[in-house]
Specification:
There is one protein chain. This protein has helices spanning 31-43, 76-86, 141-148, 199-211, 219-226; strands at residues 5-13, 50-51, 60-70, 91-99, 111-120, 133-135, 153-156, 171-182, 185-192, 241-247. With 273 residues, it is α+β, with helices and mostly antiparallel strands. It folds into two domains: 5-108, Alpha-Beta Plaits (2-Layer Sandwich), CATH 3.30.70; 111-242, 2-Layer Sandwich (Alpha-Beta Plaits). Strands 1, 2, 3, 4, 5, 6, 7, 8, 9 and 10 form a ten-stranded mixed sheet that branches. Helix 1 (31-43) crosses helix 2. 39% of the residues are buried.
Length: 273
């Protein structure tokens, strides 16, 4: 058998069909297990897929990065076409690239990025069901933007993580948190060196409460410094949350795809600062 090679992959998925990224007990659908089964058929041997992050049930991925190892001699086109033929319509490989053995999708990532999409309208949309969080009370953007700035930088985010979060390091560096609106759609664009369990959804819950007028913009900073999850309000729905990108050192030469979140928002401007 030839020497094993490592392959990085870009993955897109609709999270509504799965109980999250990570493989769980038998019979529970996950993105990881579904990918592993499809890749294994093309590789003709079992594979393990490692991802940049682990998304929850109902959370989507438009730019998830992962990797697997295989000694099977396949061209990039053969991998891509073969695996996509075997995947359900809710998952697709965007690209595949041979990488150095030193690459690891999780441990070599230097930043992760999420989008949280809110449909702010008095009436629900059937076409956006599960793809955006519906919030029927009017939201004011300016207070949300003001509050968001208190969360940028290096902080202890204990007040914004799930009670069941297993990380022993609650300090994270949030590089930016932009909030923009077009018509009834509001997008939270957040990047950090890493995220705690439910961190983005808890941030979204606090910012929506502020935008609705339930609290002043300063409440976000008060919740942050308290380090108390019970003061942080409601965890926002997984609907509308997208893992949109993971960043790596340039030495790995991964494809640089546009960061769009859901494709139907591809025309929105983005800022990395």
């Amino acid at each position: 058998m030839s020497e094993s090679r490592r392959y990085a992959i870009g993955v897109e998925y609709d999270g509504r069909a799965f109980r999250g990224w990570q493989t769980q007990q038998e019979g529970v659908p996950s993105v990881q297990l579904t990918l592993e089964q499809a890749i294994a058929k093309v590789a003709n041997h079992p594979v393990v897929v490692h991802a940049a992050g682990r998304t929850d049930a109902g959370v989507h991925g438009s730019g998830m990065i992962a990797h697997f190892d295989s000694p099977s001699p396949r061209s990039e086109r053969s991998w891509l076409m073969g695996v996509n033929t075997l995947l359900p319509e809710s998952i697709a490989l965007r690209w595949i690239r041979p990488v150095d053995d030193g690459f690891h999708a999780r441990f070599k990532a230097i930043a992760r990025r999420y989008h949280y999409i809110i449909y702010n309208h008095p009436r629900r949309s059937s076409l956006l069901a599960g793809r955006a969080t519906w919030h029927y009370h009017p939201l004011e953007l300016a207070p949300m933007q003001e509050a968001a700035q208190a969360l940028v930088g290096v902080h202890d985010f204990s007040a914004f993580r799930a009670v069941a979060c297993q990380s022993n390091r609650p300090v994270r560096d949030v590089h930016f948190l932009h909030i923009e609106q077009r018509g009834p759609l509001i997008r939270l664009d957040i990047q950090a060196d890493g995220f705690l369990h439910h961190m983005v959804r808890n941030i979204a819950g606090v910012l929506m409460a502020i935008g609705q007028g339930k609290a002043e913009p300063g409440w976000a900073a008060e919740v942050l410094v308290s380090r108390d999850r019970t003061l942080g309000g409601v965890t926002a729905s997984p609907d509308g949350l997208y893992f949109v990108n993971a960043l790596y050192p340039p030495q790995f030469e991964l494809p640089r795809e546009p960061v769009t979140g859901p494709l139907w928002m591809a025309g929105w401007p983005l800022s990395d600062k």
